Amino acid sequence: MHSSEELEVTVDGVSYKVSELSEEAQSQVANLQYVDAQIADLNAKLAVFQTARNAYQASLQQLIPRTRQ
């Protein structure tokens, strides 16, 4: 299975074809891809939790009696 668009990685401004890297370097690329995916997932979850927190806080503000001035 050969893709017309070969995966590349850029290190220090230089692009390399992943298929031309050593097995150890390819393993590190896979590690980076995994970690980047996990970070993206956590950022998405953080956005959901922040939205929920804001909604809970707004609801709480409506339930707390206003102080009289």
**Spans where pLDDT lies below 50 across 5 or more residues:** none
What is the overall shape?
rod-shaped
What quaternary form is this?
single chain
Rg from C-alpha positions?
23 Å
* Distance separating the two termini: 73 Å
For the biggest sheet, the summary is: 2 strands, antiparallel
Mean pLDDT: 92
Spatial order of strands in the largest sheet: 1-2
Helix content: 55-70%
Query: In percent terms, what proportion of residues is strand?
Result: 5-15%
SSE string, helices as H and strands as E: EEH
Number of helices: 1
- Judged by helices, strands and strand pairing, the structural class is mainly alpha
Counting DSSP E segments of at least 2 residues, the number of strands comes to 2
Please supply descriptive tags for the structure shown above.
69 residues, mainly alpha, single chain, 1 helix, two-stranded antiparallel sheet, rod-shaped, 59% helix, 12% strand
Provide an overview of this structure.
This protein is mainly alpha-helical. The chain has a domain at 33-62. Helix content is 59%, strand content 12%. The protein contains 1 helix and 2 strands. The protein has one helix at residues 23-63; strands at residues 8-11, 14-17. A two-stranded antiparallel ribbon has the order 1-2. A hairpin with a 2-residue loop joins strand 1 (8-11) and strand 2. It is rod-shaped. The chain starts with 7 loop residues before the first strand and ends in a 6-residue tail after the last helix. The mean pLDDT is 92.
